[in-house]
Amino acid sequence: MLNIVVCVKAVPDPKEACNIKIDPDTKTLMRCEVPFVVNPLDKNAMEAALQLKEQGDAHISVLSMGPPEAGNIVKECLALGADQGFLLSDPAFGGADAYATAYTLAKGIEKIGSFDVVFCGMASSDGSTEWVGPEMATFLNIPVVTMVKEIVESEGEFWQVKASLENGYRLMRVQLPAVFTVTRDLNTPRTLSFSGIIKARKKEISEWGIHELGVPAELLGVKGSPTVVSNLSTTESKREVEMISGTREEKAEQLVQKLAEAGVI
Amino acid sequence: MDKTQAPVWVIADQIDCRILSVSFQLIGRARKLADELETSVEAVLLGDNVREQTQQLVAAGADTVYLANSPELYFYQPELYTEIIVKLAQKQQPQIMMLGSTSMGRELAPLVAARLKTGLTAHCIDLVLDKDRILEQKIPAYGGLLSIICPEKRPQMATIASGVFPKPEMDAERTGEVVELEVPIDVPRRIETLEVVREEPKGVPLESAPIIVAGGAGAGDPDGWQQIADLANTLNAALGCTRPAVDEGWADLETMIGQSGKMVSPECYIGVGLSGELQHMVGIVGSQIMIAINNDAKSPVFEKVDFGIVDDGREFVPVLIEKIKKYQEKKVTC
Fold first, then answer.
1. B177: distance to nearest CA of chain A, Å?
2. Which of A100, A118, A194, B77 could cross-link A224 (Cys pair, CB 3.0–4.6 Å)?
3. Which of the residue ranges A97-101, B141-145, B283-287 has the most confident prediction, judged by mean pLDDT?
4. CATH of the domain at B99
């Protein structure tokens, strides 16, 4: 049986991201009631796991680190078809950068036990680093392929995958266990079904804190993060806008005039 | 070694034995930082048949080039590349390590950072030294600019996209040292690059286009997106986009402009149905004329452009295309 772990992150809904601002005093995000959703690329990771389960014998564990509210996105993944859920939640985990996050998730995966494949999205929509997957693989001492866009061969101990690169792809042969970070080209994530939601009610979510992981506090959260935000500046625009007004026709004509004056048409 | 004398590193990136321009741009910046820190710039170049390229890195500003040259290194091989860089970094103790935000750099940087147990920032748009000579790594986020530092761990690591820093003057007379590295033999081979396939890019390339038309979430649907693509066509412009357009599946990741995408400086930029998120706007600050079309008069995009039009892009763009076509016909007949 193939043991799959899918790492998912609860992120503020990207569709409402323009409502999120940084608090200039605390330098933290003011989420302003923006709801948490599954990070969009993690849905592709989840879909990859579900398709493998449909093709053969597989067990899917879904793992997230975040505040207790992140339990909802773990529940959503159980409703999509994951078998078991794990939430790493503890005030000691808070304020982690990519390094400390990857370390904590790696400890969670070790505690889950046997695994062959770890899937996660290639980046999160809020933090925008792409480091958690590869750093997690390093802490687990297993190989990683980032930006996977196609799984070519998934039988046996050696897989072949295609990973995106500038104007093309690279074909990688990789020995399991391994981490794969996925792009949206890999698949189209399915949506929730009613029967899935019903089935998920019987599935368990284990919540683990610092004691369950058995990791010293200095390796976690803010203390375990090599990077810190030292300053936040607001950027000022150096351009002064001239609004073009009038009827639609007039606006279009004036714009054409501006383009002509600039010599670009 | 005195910590302040520790070198500034650039991991060079090459495709088919040609060093990428981002690597020279990073050496240019590394040179400035190293001069301020009164230390040296060291480049690391891994590949096959790249020995002749080392002089170019010196000409761009490197004092030392560490070279690993072997057929095994022709493609980026994650385990081998990581091992060579980690071992060398443990020995040479650089204080700063920069990599391009290329497909290789984006995977290699976190592999190296985690092994060296240090911090890493993604897609910085500026690197400066603070009063304590610590590297401030600037990243746009949620309408502001974050300065991130790595106060204790070394090296201070960052990835930077092509176009953020200018290419330095190349001085062919500059001299530097080339140090050849052995390729280690005891590295696990659990992963292997079998093949690299490059495809011809579609459409007008963003990097060299005089005009760029970019679309965002405001396109609404594939039809709305097609109109923006038609506008680009009419102007013989390159078509760019923001992240939501990629998320919606209308546009390829290759055409994304901004911090984690392309950095461009066209003569003219026209943004349609996008809100002016800083992550996008930092990619086009070099543009000479900037125009925005958005149906929300309060959209922050209007604070960042030269000309603004409040209108629904889906209604306005077809009219604009007609007017441009008329102008172009008139121009030809005159």
1. 32
2. A100
3. A97-101
4. 3.40.50.620
